[in-house]
Design goal:
InterPro entries: Fe-S_Maturation_MIP18, FSCA_dom_sf, MIP18-like. Pfam families: FeS_assembly_P. Residues 17-88 form the MIP18 family-like domain. The chain is an alpha+beta fold. The protein has a single domain (8-108), classed as Fe-S cluster assembly (FSCA) (GMP Synthetase, Chain A, domain 3), CATH 3.30.300. The chain is built from three helices and five strands; from the N terminus they run αββββαβα. The strands form two sheets. It has a three-stranded mixed sheet with strand order 3-4-5, with helices on one face. It has a two-stranded antiparallel ribbon with strand order 1-2. β3 (40-45) and β4 form a beta hairpin. It is globular, with a radius of gyration of 14 Å. The N and C termini lie far apart (39 Å). The model has no long low-confidence stretch (mean pLDDT 92).
Amino acid sequence: MEPTNWNEEKINEIKGEILSALEQVIDPELNIDIVNLGLIYGVEIAEDKHCVIKLTLTTMGCPLVDTITDDIMKAMQTIPEISSTEVKLVWYPAWDTSKMSRYARIALGVR
């Protein structure tokens, strides 16, 4: 349930701000941000201005999950409209290189 005093345009604007903030979160192994890598599967804003970020990782056993989650939490503190954040790790659909942006593919040499 989205905040009742926000219209769809405002919600989309805030989601855009969130994605911009998340572009500052860099995957330490690949040195590309998590948005361009295609690791963000969803951003939801609840009635109480609580944000849920659905995140996947390139591999299930990724040892950097805590680092990336901490960096997401720090980035979210820059969004004044959001009062709290939760990161939900999801594994479906499985991540693959087709989820990367053109920028990430070029930077990593993926065709």
